[in-house]
Amino acid sequence: MMKKVYALTMGLMMGMATSFAQTDNTFKFVTIDEELNETGSVEDNAVINVSTVSNVGGADCISSGLALKNTTDATAFAFMEYEITKMENGTHQICFSGACLVDKEEGEYIYPRAASNGNMTSKAIIKAGVAQSLQAEWLFKDYGTTAVTYHAQVAEKIGTTGGFIPQDLYGVKAEGPTVTVNYIHTEDTGISNNVTADEAKSVSFYDLSGRRVAADTKGMVIRKLTMRDGSVKTEKLLMK
């Protein structure tokens, strides 16, 4: 895509996934565990289903389990476009670079938000080689599904604002990778007998409140399998 300046083109913000030009390789999506350790790579335009229920600040939610990794040897700036194509209940939250944005309805959004005059004076800063968590979750209120497509962009400084206290302005330098996450919460979420640990790249275990536990924990646990293609599968197991 052609280079965009957000002060002028916020109305052209999305045009998700299929309309993007060749992807820049500065960033890539990766999967992470509860301790923010990188567990696998995600192919561009991948679709991931997630269903493990956690508790954040007293609210039940399902996390994307994704981070954006800077693959270069220098600090890079990022924007995160995202489109909520389906949200049957609850809210979507993303805290990518600190401040949290909460969205209550389907639509096209960008992180961070632009100023009221359309200027982009903020961005995510990702150091060389670092995978920064999207901290994106669906805070559900009932059973259902939410689908969100995330699209990373490489940002750069394009100028400064006028006025008594000038601020740096940022625009899009290049288009990055895209991933779609299906957040799924059903009565039997995660119950599956079709996947074995041998097929997964990494395996972790959680109790029913979302806390990570040891693999030999007794009782009902949730096993999270990060597959070699970047997808995440979960299943409830009764450990004896």
General description of the model:
It is a single chain. With 240 residues, the protein is mainly β. It folds into two domains: 6-185, no CATH class; 197-239, no CATH class. It is 2% helix and 52% strand. The protein has one helix at 6-9, and strands at residues 27-32, 38-41, 46-50, 53-56, 59-63, 66-70, 76-87, 91-94, 101-103, 107-111, 124-126, 131-133, 136-139, 144-160, 168-185, 200-206, 212-213, 219-227, 232-239. The strands form four sheets. Strands 3, 7, 10, 11, 14 and 15 form a six-stranded mixed beta sheet that branches. A five-stranded antiparallel beta sheet has the order 4-5-13-8-9, with no helix packed on it. The protein is globular, with a radius of gyration of 19 Å. Mean pLDDT is 81; it is low at 1-20 and 190-195.
Secondary structure topology:
Blueprint: H1 6-9, E1 27-32, E2 38-41, E3 46-50, E4 53-56, E5 59-63, E6 66-70, E7 76-87, E8 91-94, E9 101-103, E10 107-111, E11 124-126, E12 131-133, E13 136-139, E14 144-160, E15 168-185, E16 200-206, E17 212-213, E18 219-227, E19 232-239
Parallel strand pairs: 3-15
Antiparallel strand pairs: 1-2, 1-6, 4-5, 5-13, 6-12, 7-10, 7-11, 7-14, 8-9, 8-13, 14-15, 16-17, 16-18, 18-19
In short:
The protein contains 1 helix and 19 strands. It has one helix at 6-9; strands at 27-32, 38-41, 46-50, 53-56, 59-63, 66-70, 76-87, 91-94, 101-103, 107-111, 124-126, 131-133, 136-139, 144-160, 168-185, 200-206, 212-213, 219-227, 232-239.
